[in-house]
Amino acid sequence: MKKLLIGALALASIAVIAAGCGGEKKAAPAAEKKVALKVGATAVPHAEILNHIKAGLAKDGVNMEVIEFSDYVKPNLSLNDKELDANFFQHEPYLNKFVAERKLNLVSAGKVHIEPMGIYSKKIKDINAVPNGAKIAIPNDPTNGGRALAILQSAKLLKLKDGVGVNATVGDITGNDKKLNIVEIEAALLPRSMDDVDLSVINSNFAMEAKLNPVKDSLFTEPKESPYANIVAVRKGDEKRPEIQKLMKALQSPEVKKFIEEKYKGAVVPAF
Known about the structure:
By secondary structure, the protein is α/β, with parallel strands linked by helices. The protein has 2 domains: 35-115 and 228-270, Periplasmic binding protein-like II (D-Maltodextrin-Binding Protein, domain 2, 3-Layer(aba) Sandwich), CATH 3.40.190.10; 118-221, D-Maltodextrin-Binding Protein, domain 2. The protein is built from 8 helices and 13 strands. The strands form 3 sheets. Strands 2-1-3-12-4-13 form a 6-stranded mixed β-sheet, with helices on both faces. α2 (43-59) links the parallel β1 and β2. α2 packs across α7. It is elongated. The protein starts with a helix and ends with a strand. Residues 1-25 have low confidence and may be disordered.
């Protein structure tokens, strides 16, 4: 009897221990830590496109902060100074010239879209009716200035020296039968210049910010074979970072292509 009692007590103890072990709740696995990513951008369309993919990136482990800029200089300087992880506002010819002049170590992580540059006017309704001596405003930064001059040549308003390409300056104008007066203005201020000039050659992002529709409102638009695709810029070597690769995968997705085509209706064109 005594042996039976001892055996029963032992089994009971084992059962209590087993129950205690089995009843312990396993600690919940720690939530996956999200990686922070700071991306500089101009408002339209760059910040809009980035904000469109923000929620999807968060699900993929990347918390993206979009920091808006209103100029073409600070985003690259901030990226170089490690205040940003990437920026999205410029085309590759501009980046290449900027880094060469300032000796920065920035590169393209990939193309996203093209914003065809256009010629706008509040005074002239037909590109073929530009009067002699007309005043034309173009961007004052070198690559966009050269790009604007190339568009004016495509519109048969002037002729440039052969072979100057994206490096064209006002000094490269070899034919100007209408005696056009070319004035150079900061790109962001070009929409405001329209009251003071006859024509303004404006980047699509700044045109859209000013509620101008590049498809409907421009008198002449840059040919679609333009090499000026807008890119994401990063510090050299960072293009291999997993969070940058996730950013590019999201920006070059079918969903973003559809978003660009439906929202901008030709004013912005996917480049992937």
